[in-house]
Amino acid sequence: MTIDPLVLMTDVDQATERLIRTAEGLEPGAESAPSRLPGWTTGHVLTHVARNADAYTNLLTWARTGVETPPYATPTARAEGIEAGYRRPLDEQIADLRESHERFADAAAAMPAEAWTFHLAATGQSAAVVPWARLREVEVHHVDLGLGYTPEDWSDAFALRLLREIVTGAGDTLPLVLRPHGLDHPLTIGTVTDATPSIGGPTRSIAAWLAGRADGSDLTISPDGELPTPPKWK
């Protein structure tokens, strides 16, 4: 998957449109149905995705202008935004998804080349990672709706980048050797030894399992045994 933020914005556009099409296929009132996230309804997930777009729009504004613009105005604003919006009728939530995405896309289009290198104190990374972070948010939460979109629908490039990101961020947690199909070299988590479990399977399946979005039933483990509980992903 490209690291060019403007090229990634095309992927964000397409992923957002897929999510909106899923929401448009629901019956009125479906916003109150449970999602795959404990304690969250469909409305919670959709509202969160919309407010997340606004949060990333703020970060791009910060990078472009140099004026500190945190993703959320206060430490409690994220939760308050979800609470305020999740009960809205489905058509309002769909419109909100479109409009918040358009604001984000406009903010990305307004970025001069040098602004993508701006270091964002809120994330500890450059603004160039924001389109990827938004794509990850849309694709993973689309799965969380539990409405037929699964990790099998992720592109190979997305699944591999997600997997590498999870592995990099896992730190020295539960040691694992990961052997995604098609990769020449294994990926490792933690301090591995000869006794460290080796997990094999499709890249999408390993990424989804580590992200807490699949049970790993199609993965293999060596030596034989039960799959361990993976390190908690954010």
Tell me about this structure.
With 234 residues, the chain is of the alpha+beta class. It is built from 7 helices and 6 strands; from the N terminus they run ααααββααβββαβ. β1 and β2 (125-126) form a beta hairpin. α2 (42-65) packs across α3 (77-85) and α2 (42-65) runs parallel beside α4 (90-109). The protein is globular, with a radius of gyration of 19 Å.
Number of strands: 6
The count of helical stretches stands at: 7
Distance between the termini: 22 Å
Q: Give me the secondary-structure category.
A: alpha+beta
Provide the helix percentage.
Answer: 40-55%
Sheet with most strands: 4 strands, mixed
**Roughly how many Å is the radius of gyration?**
19 Å
Strand order of the largest sheet: 4-3-5-6
Compose a concise summary of this entry.
The chain is of the alpha+beta class and 234 residues long. It is built from 7 helices and 6 strands. The longest helix has 24 residues.
